[in-house]
Backbone:
């Protein structure tokens, strides 16, 4: 339970947000929503304890563990991937050492009945239980599962972290935070450096996680899959809804319509009352009624309509010059970086007007192929560009390439040529750089502002092939929707390297999947592709299971039937484990009721500073987690025993 109380952040007279208050409850899945610059990252930093508010405070139970992933961080490149990730288990390693020391001491003592000896046994049990709860000796398997889920190969595990790009190092930090199993995850744009496979793995992990999650993301599909609560920061205020992102958008619209209707009715009532007062103000016979109406107006609780921040991009790509029917044709294209083969004799054909997605895990060659098409990389095989193809390219690190010493206006003025130079300010205004904004240095711009500025370059001259490598990173929801519509309306050809499913949905009509040095063409949209891929994976799994069964059948002889005594023993184990499962379920139900009662108490503002209440909440929460772990183990044991019984009958 984390309490955010009356937070205000003031930057030189400008209030980013004012007197913001809300609670983060256990198992909350909160999406922080708002346009770039609204204060989402600042709020997350304050909750994480990395920044102080101007006024207000954040309170939480003593010992509560937070896992914070910022958008940008500095890295320490002195360890291998596994060594870096193992830092998440520093407490586990310390417990392991303490258990070994206590075990040694117990083995050396003979005063078995003494109080100190019994206390030592209790301490060993306590440490062992905590050790098992945190993963125990299974932590190596947890590391492997997590790293593989985030896209690492086993061959990457012993590589130095300094060999990886910033995006991959961010994955390493994310892996550490996931393995630490904090009470609350605070994740700022965790999907920015993940591919579709890794995003789906992270979705599954967070959906079933026992703690709370607060995340900032402009990936609508990711938010909808995880969140059950949305908090929007807009114009210094917050709007809190117990709903996923898509449902929140609907509820917000309904709320505003209701407010507007109530506001209009109230304004009509106020107007009628004021007319009555004005009409009979000086008539002594109506003095009592006039005074009554004046008091009514003074006591009236005036309805306010939620303000909406409607600033948004205004993008329209220039008409595309006509190109040949075939825009790009690749035949047996290969590319290697030293001994690392990325593309191996791949073929592809992209025709005029097609909107194509390049998808696949990071490092599989998507950006490499985009750069080959741009003639930025030497390669083997044949790549032919169609007649009159003019390319506009947005690189993955385009925003980072900008010269930080230039202003916004200078950045565009230095590359614009011809008639477009007379329209630079209008162009920047369309990308939300107006007035004094054009004189800001690039160094002070946010990630979203830099992305928008880098995108302005695409509109400086007409092109008929747009190659966009991760264009939506750092763009807010509204900006992404407007960019998506502009690309839909663009009459040229588009190649999109992206992991954003919602952005690609309804935009692309062909998907090239990059995997194992090859590419595979899928006709249709992104969700068609993901559905087919899921089916392929399921078929592979079923084939693997069938193969294992056949191997088992082919083994010479079959296992002898269990003897009567062995069957009897197995049944006894099953019944005993069934009782354990039932006992755990009863304990869990009891603790959940108690936790709910404590949550209601803590939600009362007067109890916000009651440390004993928070301590009791933490104690019950820990007991519930322990009971859940015990239930999971008992349930797994029961399933194994029942499977063993069914196989031998």
Residues:
């Amino acid at each position: 339970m984390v309490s955010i109380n009356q937070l205000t952040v003031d930057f030189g007279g400008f209030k980013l947000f004012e007197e913001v208050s809300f609670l983060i409850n256990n198992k909350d899945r909160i999406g922080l929503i708002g346009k770039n610059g609204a204060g989402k990252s600042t709020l997350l930093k304050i909750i994480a304890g990395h920044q102080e508010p101007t006024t207000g405070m954040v309170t939480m139970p003593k010992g509560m563990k937070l896992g914070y992933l910022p958008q940008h961080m500095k890295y320490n490149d002195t360890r291998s991937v596994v060594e870096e990730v193992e830092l998440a288990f520093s407490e586990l390693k310390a417990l392991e050492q303490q258990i070994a020391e206590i075990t040694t001491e117990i083995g050396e003592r003979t005063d078995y009945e003494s109080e100190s000896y019994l206390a030592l046994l209790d301490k060993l049990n306590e440490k062992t239980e905590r050790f098992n709860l945190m993963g125990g000796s299974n932590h190596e398997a947890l590391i492997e599962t997590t790293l593989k889920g985030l896209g690492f190969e086993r061959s990457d595990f012993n590589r130095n972290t300094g060999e990886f790009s910033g995006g991959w190092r961010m994955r390493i930090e994310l892996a550490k935070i996931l393995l630490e199993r904090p009470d609350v995850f605070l994740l700022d744009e965790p999907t920015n450096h993940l591919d579709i496979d890794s995003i789906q793995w992270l979705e599954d992990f967070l959906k079933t996680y026992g703690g709370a999650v607060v995340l900032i993301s402009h990936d609508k599909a990711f938010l909808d899959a995880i969140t059950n609560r949305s908090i929007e920061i807009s114009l210094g205020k917050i709007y809190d809804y117990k709903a996923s992102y898509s449902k929140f958008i609907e509820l917000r619209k309904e709320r505003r319509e209701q407010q507007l209707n109530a506001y209009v009715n109230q304004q009509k009532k106020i107007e009628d009352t004021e007319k009555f007062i004005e009409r009979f103000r000086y008539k002594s016979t109506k003095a009592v009624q006039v005074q009554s109406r004046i008091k009514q107006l003074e006591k009236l609780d005036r309805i306010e309509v939620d303000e909406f921040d409607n600033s948004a991009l205004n993008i329209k790509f220039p008409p595309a010059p006509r190109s040949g029917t075939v825009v790009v044709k690749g035949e047996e294209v290969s590319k290697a970086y030293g001994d690392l083969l990325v593309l191996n004799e791949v073929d592809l054909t992209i025709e005029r007007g097609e909107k194509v997605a390049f998808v696949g895990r990071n490092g599989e060659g998507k950006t490499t192929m985009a750069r080959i098409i741009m003639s930025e990389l030497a390669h083997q095989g044949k790549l032919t560009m169609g007649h009159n193809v003019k390319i506009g390219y947005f690189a993955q690190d385009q925003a980072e390439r900008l010269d930080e010493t230039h202003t916004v206006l200078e950045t565009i003025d230095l590359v614009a040529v011809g008639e477009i130079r007379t329209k630079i300010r209008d162009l920047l205004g369309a990308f939300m750089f107006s007035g004094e904004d054009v004189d800001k240095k690039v160094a002070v711009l946010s990630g979203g502002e830099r992305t928008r500025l880098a995108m302005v370059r695409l509109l400086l001259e007409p092109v008929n092939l747009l190659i966009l490598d991760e264009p939506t990173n750092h763009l807010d929801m509204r900006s992404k929707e407007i960019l998506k519509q502009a690309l839909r309306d663009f009459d040229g050809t588009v190649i999109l390297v992206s992991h954003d499913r919602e952005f690609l949905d309804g935009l692309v009509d062909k998907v090239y999947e990059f995997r194992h040095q090859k590419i595979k063409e899928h006709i249709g949209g992104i969700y068609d592709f993901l559905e087919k891929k899921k089916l392929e994976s399921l078929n592979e799994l079923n084939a693997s299971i069938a193969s294992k069964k056949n191997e088992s059948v082919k083994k010479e002889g079959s296992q002898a039937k269990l003897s009567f005594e062995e069957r009897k023993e197995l049944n006894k184990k099953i019944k005993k484990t069934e009782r354990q499962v039932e006992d755990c379920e009863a304990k869990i139900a009891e603790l959940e009721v108690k936790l709910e009662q404590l949550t209601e108490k803590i939600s009362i503002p007067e109890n916000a500073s009651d440390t004993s209440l928070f301590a009791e909440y933490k104690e019950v929460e820990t007991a519930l987690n322990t009971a859940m772990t015990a239930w999971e183990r008992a349930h797994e044991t029961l399933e194994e025993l029942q499977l063993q019984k069914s196989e031998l009958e």
Summary: Residues 555-562 have pLDDT under 50 and may be disordered. The radius of gyration is 31 Å. DSSP finds 20 helices and 18 strands in the chain.
